[in-house]
Specification:
It contains no helices and eleven strands. The protein is mainly β. Strands 2, 4, 5, 6, 9, 10 and 11 form a seven-stranded mixed beta sheet that branches. A four-stranded antiparallel beta sheet has the order 1-3-8-7, with no helix packed on it. The chain is globular, with a radius of gyration of 13 Å.
Length: about 120
């Protein structure tokens, strides 16, 4: 059974930084494409960032381009989301996700496995 666990969320002021981590277990991590999504109260879950299985390609939502960086460490079976220049509109529960197809994917339906989420709150 594939299992993903997020960590690193918290409360931060506008302009601050956080790094989210997602630990993976259950299968060979290096064969999975990984992603980050977020969901604010009353809103749909939206794509944030994704990285391919080799870590050679990344893609981002326009709303976070230039502020967030996704990366992965296959030896540690972990992928990350480094967030800088945080804004109140970034406030959401952030979810890591994994796709058994090791290519870039950006839709919720493309990801098979999900963590339970970690709260990120950005104050004004």
């Amino acid at each position: 059974q594939v299992q993903l666990v997020e960590s690193g969320g918290g409360l931060v002021q506008t302009g601050g930084s956080l790094r989210l981590s997602c630990e993976f277990s259950g299968r060979t991590f290096s064969t999975f494409g990984m992603g980050w999504f977020r969901q604010a109260p009353g809103k749909d879950r939206e794509f944030v960032a994704a990285i391919n299985w080799r870590g050679t390609y990344t893609t981002y939502a326009e709303s976070v381009e230039g502020r967030f960086t996704i990366s992965r460490d296959n030896a540690k079976r972990t992928h990350y989301l480094q967030m800088t220049g945080l804004k109140p509109e970034d406030t959401a529960v952030y979810y890591c996700a994994a796709s058994p197809v090791p290519v870039l994917r950006t839709k919720v339906s493309d990801f098979e496995y999900w963590g339970l989420g970690t709260q990120v709150t950005v104050s004004s």
